[in-house]
Write a structure and sequence with these properties.
Distance between the termini of chain A: 44 Å
Order of helices and strands of chain A: HHHEEHHHH
Number of helices of chain A: 7
Shape of chain A: elongated
Largest sheet of chain A: 2 strands, antiparallel
Oligomer: homodimer
Radius of gyration of chain A: 20 Å
Strand order of the largest sheet of chain A: 1-2
Strand content of chain A: 5-15%
Helix content of chain A: 40-55%
Structural class of chain A: mainly alpha
Chain lengths: 160, 160
DNA sequence: CGAACGCGGATAGTTGTCATCCGCGTAGGA
DNA sequence: TCCTACGCGGATGACAACTATCCGCGTTCG
């Protein structure tokens, strides 16, 4: 059970976008994080389709957060990249074999699926409780207040 | 982010084993659940290596739970099949690029990794709170008390 | 001894992730 | 008007993981 590495990239990009003054192009985000430009573009497109991010086309274009960073939860970012499907998929094996449960008893999900769903709900709730703004605050806590000052300078240099 | 289908098989097998009077061979478990015998064998070997299940070799051999069903958590079964690695793997991209965080600031995990780890901890806690005995009780609740009577009969017919 | 069983390795088919490239449309500046 | 920088979507391919099967080996019991 592994999460795509694109999730990590997407989250960090959202944190950076929360500090940007204008649109940030893919190439800048890729250079900043030291990752593949073309592949990062794919994940940014996913964020765009999910509505978390807005793209400005044409020259001087780039990406912007669509909402305030405090309104964007980590869960939204993860699901934009990973998709909404739960990790556990019940195949209803209780309906297989010689002792198959009667369909009448299968109107509700089986106990195994219920327990798995509850665990994933706990996971999603935890992610939903963290916003991009919280993550940005964590960076300041770890790296000092001037951490984002350097970032804004570097982004502005790109716009020359 | 998908979980292996083998997890579902393994969990259902544990519930069945909790109701068995003696060793149950792989072929019987596979027939009962309508799944591939050879592939299920792989997952049962994983449970065996994890110590959740004990194998009796030779003729009339098969699998037994090593502990009381109330002592076996769903988390143990999931991790026996899926492995212990977390779904999110931090690649420390904060140390990449022109504005890399100083190594000194990276002694602790980055905020993103911390949030992800907290969510996975919530997931594991939820799974740890459910035992195989709880799942068996759920089957009785859904299918009536005689659900496992038929199962025990069917398993005994195999030993006939 | 023979039959039934678990164990481990070898082997593929299929799917999903990771990554790259190209052509297209769009917007701003010279 | 043209050029350039940019996002978008499709096509493509390398690689790993999951899914599935088979075989030979050792063990146990009648």
């Amino acid at each position: 059970m592994k999460m795509s590495a694109g999730v990590e990239w997407a989250v960090h990009c959202c944190v950076v976008l929360s500090q940007a003054d204008g649109p940030v192009p893919t190439a800048r985000l890729a250079e900043l994080h030291g990752v593949s430009r073309t592949y990062l573009a794919k994940h940014l497109q996913q964020l765009s389709r999910a509505g978390l991010v807005r793209s400005t086309e044409g020259r001087d274009g780039g990406y912007l957060l669509t909402k305030d960073a405090a309104e964007v939860s980590l869960l939204e970012v993860v699901q934009a990249v990973e998709g909404p499907e739960p990790a556990f998929r019940c195949t209803e094996i209780r309906q297989n074999g010689p002792l198959a449960a009667r369909p009448a008893a299968c109107r509700s999900a089986c106990g195994v699926a219920r327990a798995m769903a509850a665990a994933e709900h706990a996971w999603r709730s935890s992610l939903a409780g963290v916003s991009v703004a919280d993550l940005a605050a964590g960076v300041v806590e770890d790296n000092g207040r001037q951490a984002f000052v350097g970032l804004r300078d570097w982004l502005a240099r790109g716009r020359g």
